[in-house]
Amino acid sequence: MRGGVDPRLDEFHQMLDEHERDCVTLARVHAERLMDERRKRRDEPNWQDRGGSLGLRVRERGEKGAASFRAEWIVMRRIPASTKDRALAKNNDSRAKFVTRYFALPKGRSDQYPNSRLLKYARPWEEELILEIESEVAHLRTQVKKIVDLRRRVNLYNIFLEGEE
Q: Looking at the DSSP assignment, which residues form a beta bridge with residue 79?
């Protein structure tokens, strides 16, 4: 519900949408920053010394105007391919030995993932970077949650005003 009784509400909703889109963009920048750091280290020996890789996945959801998003940490693992996986392989290579699986880490009730959970999957050289990125993305999650709550309250106010006319 946009606009309504007070025409200034349209401007307010546009401002909220713009701020929300900025949060999504910033979260994507942080996810790319982590991948750039990994790409720099590919030439080092044992750069991938763990069984899985920790990544930040940013997904938009909701309607076109509202860019609510979900930034979640995932573990990417290469596991032995089953017959079914080989049949469904994107590159149509029936000889694929491994497939990549993505496991989302549970966040809990707060807006920030527990450090211990993230450090369990982080490589030693990534730990500081991952904690820094999570701190910044948690701040973005909090901002978007407040925007969504504010938008809901404004819509309720608009319904209240319409009822009085």
A: 99
Answer for the pair 9, 3: CB distance below 8 angstroms, yes or no.
yes
The pTM of this model reads: 0.75
Q: What is the pLDDT along the chain (165 residues), one digit of tens a residue?
A: 455 556 777 888 888 888 888 998 999 999 999 888 888 877 776 655 555 678 888 888 765 545 577 889 988 876 676 656 555 555 555 555 666 677 888 888 888 999 998 998 888 888 999 999 999 999 999 998 898 899 889 888 888 877 766
Residue 119, both tokens? 């450090």
In the chain, alpha helices (H): 8-40, 83-87, 115-121, 127-164
Strand 98-104 and strand 52-60: pairing? Answer: unpaired
Residues 85, 89, 95: CA angle, nearest 5 degrees: 80
Crossing angle of helices 8-40 and 127-164, rounded to 10°: 170
Are 71 and 27 in contact by the 8 Å Cβ rule? The answer is: yes
